[in-house]
Amino acid sequence: MFDFSYLPPQTHAHTTKDPAPAITQDCRAPASTEKTDYAQRENADPTHGNLHTRTGYGGLEDASQLFSENYGVWGQPPPPPDGRSFGKPGSRVKMSASRLRAQCLPEASRSSYARVTVDGTLAGHAFACRWQHGDRQVCWITQLVVHRDYRERRLATTLLLALLDSDDDIFGIMSSHPAACKALSRAFGNFVFPQVPLDFARQHAAGVMAASPVSYVKNARLCGNLFNSGDASGLKCGVDSNFFVDHAEPLDALSRVKDLGGWPLGDLPDGHEFLLVFDVARRRRPRFSQLAVQ
């Protein structure tokens, strides 16, 4: 089921429930999706259900475990003073529930968390944060993780569709993994990958990211020859996030994507992430029963 609720500690929440789209492929078990909206304010809008109060971190301990077991492993950072302290190369990148909350659900933000389960197993989750850029609403995917045993089932797309708000105008993600960028474009873009329109990113990415309440988005440095014609790194559109996760798996996925028809965002230097940001015409939110999720 879909569970729409805003659940920060000591604040009010509203909840509605809708049937979730079932995903069945090759006799695989159907998936169910749940969404939680977090809003750091006292005047929750009860339009969609009854007000109630809940305290605690909800499912963030489970989200922390999913991330820590499935996100990736540390790569080799540059020696000090250029590199900050990271985990041991080859060890898993881990994140506690409190750090996840601070990074993905920052204070004074409007954030959402969607999770998908298959046969009772947490198979993936996505976090999104919303803010205003001028008179337009930004929906930025701050974390997207799918369990390694449930990949290539379009679960990432399902999670992102569960996060959609009818007022969203601009969508963005920073990720080292091509699959995350493709999932965002598949869920919300009005273009066919890899024909990604990059003019919006060239003109507006800096302003959109500068307005973000998410520190790692706000502080990321734009990189690639889309922003600097003298950039010779091979990156087209990305950021220097100083995040030295091992790129073996993303580069393997990137090679397959290129073989299947091209990749518009360029190569991936160490310590960098791809950047995908685009706008769409405002539209009514589709009914979940009308979504064709493969």
TrEMBL record:
GO terms for molecular function: acyltransferase activity, transferring groups other than amino-acyl groups. Residues 107-165 form the N-acetyltransferase domain. InterPro entries: Acyl_CoA_acyltransferase, GNAT_dom. It comes from Clonostachys rhizophaga. It comes from the Eukaryota. Residues 1-58, 70-92 are annotated as: Disordered. Signal peptide: none annotated. Residues 34-45 have a biased composition (Basic and acidic residues). This is N-acetyltransferase domain-containing protein.
